[in-house]
Amino acid sequence: MGRLQNGAWQDGWYDTKSTGGKFERTTTTFRNWITPDGALGSTGDDGFPAESGRYHLYVSYACPWAHRTLIFRALKGLDNHIGVSAVHPDMLSDGWEFRTDFDGATGDRLFDLPHLRDIYTRADPNISGRVTVPVLWDKTRDTIVSNESAEIIRMFNSAFDGITGNRDDYWPGELRNEIEGVNARIYDTVNNGVYKAGFATTQEAYDEAVSELFDSLDWLEARLADNRYLMGDRITEADWRLFTTLIRFDAVYHGHFKCNRAKLIEYPHLWGYTRELYQWPGVAQTVRLDHIMRHYHYSHETINPHRIVPIGPDPDLTAPHGRDEVSTRSAA
Ligand SMILES: N[C@@H](CCC(=O)N[C@@H](CS)C(=O)NCC(=O)O)C(=O)O
């Protein structure tokens, strides 16, 4: 793993020395927005109109942030409008690679380049920063629209509605304030919380992260006892953002990242909720536990130096979820 410095690749692991053993996620670089007519979005430049076949998504099936974008592509009927390339699950000294010797790793379907970093330097030859997935690429302007998953899912939520006719809304105006509050806690203590626990290099940093994580899982368990989804009876982006961490929890975060006060399957409401979301039309195809297991255990040499991929749990994600009863209860 490494980063680009003025367009040149430098190998190296995350620096936690300067932050007292804490893992701190850096901010993303490309922040343009696709809009229905190419008008300026919240940040970046204008000129990225929604068009079928114009944009391409680079993902890792292992990555929870990229996973969000794959889910929104499926939920919003964008499969025939936005192509996908999936990297190899091993992220080693060259960063994400387009090798194809793993089932589901497609290679770079646009340019046949060897590394994801080549996509970044194609967009900007002097770029500095981390080379992360997801990346949303614009074939017309030959550049990166965005590499921020939270914003890509909001583009997918509405920008292409005129093309697909799919008007399902996971970011409804009347719930936005509440969603932002819930997202903030889940991002900090759950989505990123598992990484803060797993990448901590001091006991104090680990203790703090893991205790905030399990406080939040207790809070979510209580919330989902009386609410079918985080916002009640309506599924929103907050649920999909939480789902990509929950679906990885017992497979990698519990063992590999030492988030082992409890397993997900020990929380009846969170576990039923995870199964319901997994069984949502189009979602199961976006979940690749083989990529997830391989990526984390094989790529993080500092945590797992022998790169042994454990046998892993094999929970029945297709078992009846029983969540319809929660809706009935809260509606009654
Ligand atoms: N803010 C980004 C974070 C994406 C991210 O951190 N992706 C990880 C994979 S799970 C990655 O590509 N890491 C490579 C690196 O940090 O060098 C987003 O949500 O889109």
Notable characteristics:
332 residues, alpha+beta, Glutaredoxin, Glutathione S-transferase Yfyf (Class Pi), Chain A, domain 2, 2 domains, 3-stranded antiparallel beta sheet, 9 strands, 9% strand, binds glutathione, Thioredoxin-like_sf, GST_Omega-like_C, Glutathione S-transferase, Glutathione-S-Trfase_C-like
Walk me through the structure.
- This protein is α+β, with helices and mostly antiparallel strands and 332 residues long.
- It folds into two domains: 2-164, 3-Layer(aba) Sandwich (Glutaredoxin); 173-331, Up-down Bundle (Glutathione S-transferase Yfyf (Class Pi), Chain A, domain 2), CATH 1.20.1050.
- It contains eleven helices and nine strands.
- It has helices at 64-75, 116-123, 149-158, 161-164, 176-191, 193-199, 203-226, 237-253, 268-278, 289-299, 324-331, and strands at residues 2-5, 8-11, 55-59, 83-86, 91-92, 95-96, 129-130, 135-138, 143-146.
- The protein has a four-stranded mixed sheet, with helices on both faces. Strands 2-1-7 form a three-stranded antiparallel sheet, with no helix packed on it. Strands 5-6 form a two-stranded antiparallel ribbon.
- Helix 1 crosses helix 8 (237-253) and helix 6 packs antiparallel against helix 7.
- The longest helix has 24 residues, at 203-226.
- The chain is globular.
- The termini are far apart.
- The mean pLDDT is 95.
